[in-house]
Amino acid sequence: MEGDILLFIQNNIRMPFLDTIMKGITFLADHGWFWITLSLVLLIFRKTRKVGFMCCFAIGCMFLINNICIKHIVDRTRPYEVIQGLVPLGNLPDDSSFPSGHTAISFAVSIVLLFTTKKRFGIPAVILAVLIALSRMYVGVHYPTDVLGGMAVGIVCACISLWLGPKLWNIAVKILPFLDDKKKTA
After folding, report:
1. Following DSSP, what letter does each residue of 5-48 receive, concatenated?
2. Peptide bond into 99 cis (omega under 30)
3. Is 0.85 topped by the overall pTM?
4. Per-residue pLDDT of the chain (186 residues; tens, 9 = 90+)
5. Could you please report the per-residue DSSP string of 46-61?
6. Under a CB-based contact definition with an 8 Å cutoff, are residues 126 and 114 in contact?
7. Taking a C-beta distance cutoff of 8 angstroms, is the pair 98, 146 a contact?
8. Which of 101, 92, 56 is nearest to 74 (CA)?
9. What is the rounded CA–CA span in Å between residue 29 and residue 31?
10. C-alpha to C-alpha distance for 37 and 34, rounded to whole angstroms
């Protein structure tokens, strides 16, 4: 069933200009570089430092749950290795397939942004996360359930960060007062 979905995408939706776009979208989450960079940039500015902290916390949570635990326990073979006729596009990952790390990090950070920033930033972040998730199936490196699993892990990690992140931030500010996002008056 899942193989049929991926073959349908390959045989009926793929086209050269869309291949370029989807490979570009999937590249944004390669090794999490885009989301990690965004989170670190948010840490630089006093006004967005707490949000950056929460995004980094969500990324750490996602890495632990998704990449260290679940991927090694499930150890699912990539679809292009077992589906006859499926031709992947771009770089071929060498880790296990379930759950999608690209999708997990994208949803972990974008959901934190959705609930901690203005909607004009959060909504595009979630849209990008959805596009990254879809791109993983489009390029043939993940099954639909890998993407759904990645979404679930990302959302859970975002929720953990939204709940626990502010508490940890308050502790961090007490230990390192210069982190505080409130302007000090003399």
Report:
1. HHHHIIIII--HHHHHHHHHHHHTTGGGHHHHHHHHHHHHSGGG
2. yes
3. yes
4. 888 899 889 999 999 999 999 999 999 989 889 999 999 999 999 899 999 999 999 999 999 999 999 999 999 999 999 999 888 888 888 888 999 999 999 999 999 999 999 999 999 999 999 999 999 999 999 999 999 999 999 999 999 999 999 998 888 888 887 777 565 543
5. GGGHHHHHHHHHHHHH
6. yes
7. yes
8. 101
9. 6
10. 5
SS3 119: helix
Tokens matching residue 152: 């679930």
Element (H, E) at 105: helix 101-116
Amino acid at 119: K
